[in-house]
Amino acid sequence: MNKITCAFISVLRQSNKSYSSATLLGRQLSYKSDLSLDKIYPNARLQIYTPPPPPPLSNGDKFNGYIPMDKLEVTYSRSSGPGGQHVNTVNTKVDIRFKLAEAEWIPAKTREKLLRVLANKLNKDGYYFIKSDLTRSQQMNLADALEKLRSIIRAQEVEPTGPSEETLEKLRRRQERAARQRLQLKRDRAQVKADRQAPSGVDF
């Protein structure tokens, strides 16, 4: 132990003040930040908690974002691209696959749309693949792949909306203006051609 640490411990032993960010445990000095979780959230439960799955979907429900991991086949492999020695030693690339036709956690109507839209991306066994090698973290790549899957599912649940009356009126006026400009150009061109003709019925 160096001299500075010994001197600091002796000062703490002799002082009667209470330090909020430093506690003395025998001869070892333990530091605790004022920004620790138990001080920021004094009444919070700091243990990791996994919420229970939502109730089963009915026919009219939309996708709630819950993806059961036991229904997916997740594999990890070594990622390609730059990254130094770390990229060749850790399996950070994530590949997710599942049978789309048997995915009961996706609403029936949305699943039918996905089967039509993703028909060319399914293999012969009906599996759909999603991969992610965005980062050098396995867990972050897994989260990225799951978010890709959620985005694909939710994109099929967006109902297409037609243009508003204001937009239709703007389009109609634009078409009318374009038609008037086209006719005016034709008249101007016809006048130019008429001016090029030689005068008729004039004696020199």
Can you give keywords for this protein?
37% helix; 204 residues; alpha+beta
Write the layout of secondary structure elements.
Layout lengths: L2 H12 L7 E4 L2 E4 L5 H4 L32 E5 L15 E7 L8 H10 L9 E6 L5 H18 L9 H32 L8
Antiparallel strand pairs: 1-2, 3-4, 4-5
Structure notes:
The protein is an alpha+beta fold and 204 residues long. Helices cover 37% and strands 13% of the residues. It is built from five helices and five strands, in the order H-E-E-H-E-E-H-E-H-H. The strands form two sheets. The protein has a three-stranded antiparallel β-sheet, covered by helices on one side. A two-stranded antiparallel sheet has the order 1-2. Strand 1 (22-25) and strand 2 (28-31) form a beta hairpin. The radius of gyration is 35 Å and the shape is elongated. The chain starts with a helix and ends in an 8-residue tail after the last helix. The relative contact order is 0.08.
How would you concisely characterize the structure shown here?
By secondary structure, the protein is of the alpha+beta class. The chain is 37% helix and 13% strand.
The gross shape turns out to be elongated
Based on DSSP secondary structure assignment, what is the total number of beta strands?
5
Class from helix and strand fractions: alpha+beta
Strand order of the largest sheet: 3-4-5
What Rg is obtained from the alpha carbons, in whole angstroms? Answer: 35 Å
Overall mean confidence score, pLDDT:
79
- What is the strand content? 5-15%
Helix content: 25-40%
* Largest sheet properties: 3 strands, antiparallel
SSE series: HEEHEEHEHH
First and last CA, distance: 122 Å
Number of H/I helices:
5
Unreliable stretches, pLDDT < 50, 5 or more residues? 18-28
